[in-house]
């Protein structure tokens, strides 16, 4: 990886597509090599069609897991590409077209996963939405607020509740937090608050489920080059995206996925629960 990366100014409509990004992100298509750490496991990854979710799906599949991924209708082309990469690794992939902003939708998602791949051993709550176009609190209308809170936090609670009866000892829940929970940007006031709430939920749920042998953790990415960035940030900010980190650049999804593999693996992380693992290019998560 280079020490500094500049991206050309660009903009998409939310939620954004991988094929329209310049350059396209690295999800580990050519680089990730598995070693059987998740052999025989079954994983549900929300927002698994692109970005960090795609990188997780590739890594999990190459580690031996069957995968179910959720996506929005506008992301169907990205979902098909991800499914093809999972199948190329010799694993099953179930694609679930769903908006997770109702409890019924979350229940259906868990049911579809179990029907498609036979169960759930790993739940990755990765789907999220942000919007950084606007000047402050007065720009956060009710629709935006509900979309961000319902997608980023409430859906996570609903999915965990729906999945819990199907999880047994050794299972793992991994939530996608953010550096924004620790170092919030003013234009992301609502998004950052949901990620801080998610950190609290992660620690609390880990305490509840520990006696059942179920581990609960989170990964807090820093600035990562995904479709969400050109879809929700002003073009002029894209040109400097990630350059304020100690490493001086944005990260790639392929650089985040190994953290999820570590936390999902009973081999590597059997005594890790209730933690938030930062993958931030050097920004502190405390």
Could you describe the 3D structure shown?
This protein has 286 residues and is of the alpha/beta class. The protein is 38% helix and 12% strand. The chain has 9 helices and 7 strands. The protein has a 7-stranded parallel sheet, with helices on both faces. Strand 1, helix 1 and strand 2 form a beta-alpha-beta unit. Helix 1 runs parallel beside helix 2 (76-88), helix 1 (51-62) crosses helix 8 (253-264) and helix 4 runs parallel beside helix 5 (189-209). The chain is globular and about 45 Å long. It starts with 41 loop residues before the first strand and ends in a 7-residue tail after the last strand. The model has no long low-confidence stretch (mean pLDDT 95).
Architecture blueprint of SSEs:
Layout: E1 42-45, H1 51-62, E2 66-71, H2 76-88, E3 93-97, H3 103-117, E4 122-125, H4 142-163, E5 172-176, H5 189-209, E6 215-221, H6 228-232, H7 235-238, H8 253-264, H9 266-269, E7 276-279
Helix pairs in contact: 1-2, 1-8, 3-4, 4-5
List the secondary-structure elements in sequence, H or E.
EHEHEHEHEHEHHHHE
The low-confidence runs, each spanning 5 or more residues with pLDDT under 50, are none
Largest sheet: 7 strands, parallel
Overall geometry comes to globular
State the share of residues found in helices, binned by percent.
Answer: 25-40%
- What's the mean pLDDT score? 95
- Tally the helices: what do you get? 9
Number of strands: 7
Strand order of the largest sheet: 3-2-1-4-5-6-7
What value does the Rg take, in angstroms?
Answer: 17 Å
Category from helices, strands and their pairing: alpha/beta
